[in-house]
Specification:
By secondary structure, the chain is an alpha+beta fold. The protein has two domains: 3-70; 82-179, Macroglobulin (MG2) domain (Immunoglobulin-like, Sandwich), CATH 2.60.40. Helix content is 32%, strand content 37%. The protein contains two helices and eight strands, in the order ααββββββββ. The protein has helices spanning 3-38, 50-70; strands at residues 85-95, 100-109, 112-113, 122-130, 133-142, 150-153, 158-167, 170-179. Strands 1, 2, 3 and 6 form a four-stranded antiparallel β-sheet that branches. The chain starts with a helix and ends with a strand. The model is unreliable at 74-79 (pLDDT under 50).
């Protein structure tokens, strides 16, 4: 190998080393630029807003609960004013030979039977005292379309009939005494 060939090979190696060095420099510089551009640029003075966002959400939740707790919006018919609710207890003799009576209640809200609404649901506990013997009967889920009612044999003498009515969570009571 002569001098020219070895100089040529050394020149090519030097050129290759310089090319690799330039490429490494470009790669590291681009990598640094990519890292810089992918870092988020939000917050307050370089700080994350996660804590502030959590505090805002917490305050909003507290305000929502407070408003719903003390300022509820009515979503259905209310029977909370007890002066607007009355109960009619009706009884009708069905068979006089065996003292069979039909017992029924009709709740009136603002003097309208069943409040004129499908949303009123009533449960009735009948407490019937026949000459000292007490029986109880339940009717559940009565409404304007299913008014219920029970048939009951009453004893000769004094019969006390109580109807304990639950209307939208409020309890009302109506009673009558029948002498047979």
């Amino acid at each position: 190998m002569d001098n020219t060939q070895s100089s040529l090979i050394l020149g090519m190696l030097a050129l290759a080393v310089i090319a690799v060095a330039v490429l490494l420099f470009v790669v590291f510089k681009q990598r640094k630029k990519i890292d810089y551009l992918t870092q988020p640029r939000y917050g307050f003075m370089g700080k994350s807003l996660a804590i502030a966002a959590a505090m805002v959400l917490g305050a909003a939740a507290f305000i929502t609960v407070y408003i719903n707790q003390f300022h509820q919006v009515p979503t259905s018919i209310s029977v909370s004013d007890r002066t607007e609710v009355s109960i009619d207890l009706k009884y009708e003799l069905k068979d006089s030979t065996v003292n069979l009576y039909y017992l029924n209640i009709i709740p009136k809200i603002k003097n309208i039977e069943w409040g004129g609404s499908d949303e009123i649901s009533v449960n009735v506990l009948w407490i019937i005292n026949k000459n000292g013997t007490e029986i109880q009967r339940d009717e559940k889920g009565l409404d304007i379309h299913n008014t219920g009612g029970i048939l009951e044999y009453l004893e000769p003498g004094t019969n006390s009939i109580k109807a304990r009515i639950t209307v939208n969570g409020e309890i009302f009571q109506k009673s009558v005494i029948l002498q047979i």
